[in-house]
Amino acid sequence: DVKVTQSSRYLVKRTGEKVFLECVQDMDHENMFWYRQDPGLGLRLIYFSYDVKMKEKGDIPEGYSVSREKKERFSLILESASTNQTSMYLCASSRRTGHSYEQYFGPGTRLTVT
Amino acid sequence: TQLLEQSPQFLSIQEGENLTVYCNSSSVFSSLQWYRQEPGEGPVLLVTVVTGGEVKKLKRLTFQFGDARKDSSLHITAAQPGDTGLYLCAGPIQGAQKLVFGQGTRLTINP
Predict the structure, then answer these.
(1) In this model, does residue A22 exceed pLDDT 80?
(2) Does residue B33 contact residue A100 with C-beta atoms inside 8 Å?
(3) How confident is the model at residue B8 (pLDDT cuts 50, 70, 90)?
(4) Are B76 and B19 in contact (CB under 8 A)?
(5) Which strand (E) or helix (H) includes residue B81?
(6) pLDDT tens digits for A27-73?
(7) Measuring CA to CA, which residue among A15, A47, A18, A43 is closest to residue A31?
(8) Taking CB atoms and an 8 Å limit, are A100 and B31 in contact across chains?
(9) Which residues pair with B85 in a beta bridge?
(10) Are β-strands A19-25 and A73-78 bridged in parallel, bridged antiparallel, or unpaired?
(11) Hey, which residues does B64 pair with through a beta bridge?
(12) Percentages helix, strand, coil for chain A, rounded to the nearest 5?
């Protein structure tokens, strides 16, 4: 079974702090994703990585950066956390081959910025 | 832009009832996927439909892909409280390895 793990289930940070969210997958998937999920707004893609050290901006990259130094690990960085970044953050991975690109998600990190 | 619209947005029914939720688009998709997300968890892939007209069954859940590959439906027979959750449809964006997601149907099954 594909397993995607996220470093924290719940996180509380103060405004202005630098925040690191870590994601690890164990299925050798090439693609990894970071989403945020907010009520009424659905899943919104923050960043996408299709290979080590490769990244592509998603729909809402402002205020975020990412790092992918190893194939299995994809990190999301909030350079200076703000209250409007309070959200549920979801990491996912998928294979590059095939046609459906099904994604496998981690359990999520509920981040609160105070 | 490929968009997926799900309906209804919210559905609350009694245990034992049947229900259908819909995922529609004006665009053709090579495949569509359905995910279920329980409160506080990440989405879990339920099924992928690939061929126009395809029907797949997962216990009491029946998934159908439209003949023109622009829409899909999920039918649940004799709903149970364990079916409660957010149901998301998704499809691959043409020319990219990303998915577009619908806004979801939040389903509540009352005992």
Answers:
(1) yes
(2) yes
(3) very high
(4) yes
(5) none
(6) 999 999 999 999 888 999 999 999 999 999 999 999 999 999 999 99
(7) A47
(8) yes
(9) B107
(10) antiparallel
(11) B55, B73
(12) 5, 55, 40
**Two structure tokens written together for B62:** 């029946």
Q: For residue A81, give both structure tokens.
A: 């956390």
Q: Are strands A87-94 and A104-105 parallel, antiparallel or unpaired?
A: antiparallel
Nearest to B23 by CA among B86, B98, B85, B105: B105
Q: List chain A residues with CB under 8 Å of B31.
A: 99-100
Please write the tens of the pLDDT for every residue from B17-44: 999 999 999 999 999 999 999 999 999 9
CA distance B17 to chain A (A): 26
Nearest chain A residue to B31 by CA distance is: A100
Residue B38: phi and psi, rounded to 5, are -90, 155
Give the pLDDT of residue B3: 92
| Residue contact A33–B40, C-beta within 8 A | no
Query: Are B73 and B18 a contacting pair, CB within 8 Å?
Result: no
